[in-house]
Amino acid sequence: MSLKIYIDTNIFLDSILDRDSGIARKVLLFLGEKNFEIILNDISIINIHYFSRKGIEPKKLKEYINTFLDEYIIVSVDEDILRNAINSDFKDFEDAVQYFCAKEKKARLIITNDKKGFQNSNIDTISSSDFYNQYVQ
Asked: What is the pLDDT of residues 35-65, one digit of tens each?
């Protein structure tokens, strides 16, 4: 079994919309090549589609979403995750939901470009650029 890594929604958006000079895309490709188990939640897929739909052509976006569904572990957000998130000390509800999804699947690392949103996490977090600099280059 390989290391499980939860990927925050913003990493996928940075990759798809090329908001970070290709760093997020390189990180995702590296993780796939090294057979890490990539985790995201079902709501993230909805948000990725919503925020990306005006930035890329529909056919390409459909390919991205199908890749996520085919290659990644998808966590379904359920009542327990929502209750844990809303009753947690996280300041941002969406970050709390992502954290509890990561915890549900026993992720060992969260890659996010919003580390301040995960200050209450007991799962290690790292930005995509730090991950790239430490492991990919």
From this structure: 999 999 999 999 999 999 988 999 999 999 9
